[in-house]
Write the structure tokens for this entry.
Amino acid sequence: MKNKKITHKITQGMYVLTTKDGGCMVDAVSQISAGDHPLISVAVRKDNYTNELLKRNDTFALSVLQKEIDPKIIEVFGMHSMRDYDKFAQVNTIEIEHLRIIEQALGYMICKIEDRIENDTHTLFIGRLLEADVLHEGEAMSYEYYQNNKDELLKVTTETGKTAWVCTICGYVYYGEELPENFKCPVCGVEASLFEKRKGE
Ligand code: FE
């Protein structure tokens, strides 16, 4: 592939998806039908604990993050797993329809799952929008903005004089000339092709 980075230009946002007992960061959210209660699709990685939770629960909420969101929220929901970390204890949430919503978010959408489509890495959950509201005024954070400002947002730093590989999704840093064979990010689980090499100068 010549340069996969062009996919970062697909207009996607930054959302916290929550369901009963957990949640994670997602970026691939689309409205895919019209009407008062449109269908909303969201892709969730299969190896993510939240994906497991969405097999047992039929509702989820999407909190829409704004540019000025506390980066801690991205860190908490993007770089940890509820398997061993209580994300809800770390951030302020409000409860709506038995689901946790990020208090600082621009607003939320609550959906009931109508369909699940599996691909090699993700499940596409298709939900009917049941409830939605605007909580704050502001500009939504795009995935491209996150990619362009990730080092600052996640406070990624690499040591000088060392070759580092930085996960372009979560900011995890691996030191070494080359990544080991079949390497996957230990934090967010993505494959080696999503790591960026940096020469420490
Ligand atoms: Fe990662």
